[in-house]
What we know:
The chain is built from 5 helices and no strands. It has 92 residues and is mostly helical. The chain has a single domain, classed as Monooxygenase. Helix 1 packs parallel to helix 4 and helix 3 packs antiparallel against helix 4. The longest helix has 23 residues. The protein is elongated, with a radius of gyration of 16 Å. The protein starts with a helix and ends with a helix.
Amino acid sequence: MNITHLGLLAGALTSAAAIPQVVRTYRTRQARDISIWQPVLLNIGMVLWLIYGLVIGDTPLIVANIFSIVCYSFLIAMKILYKDDDKSTSCV
């Protein structure tokens, strides 16, 4: 295993961490327990890492960040789209 393979494996594992939350939010159509700021700040950081990866030409960094940006962008979109649904199910 060379260093690129190690980077791809690390990127795949850390990027895959977003999938369960995205799937759960999509299935339940509820995002009230998710702070909007967590995926927004993560996306900003990942965009900066993506730019860095593009500048230095690091394929694992580029691939992992593109995948994560897509996942967290879906999560942000669902947080916004399901906002009205969350209000109707509150127990206030």
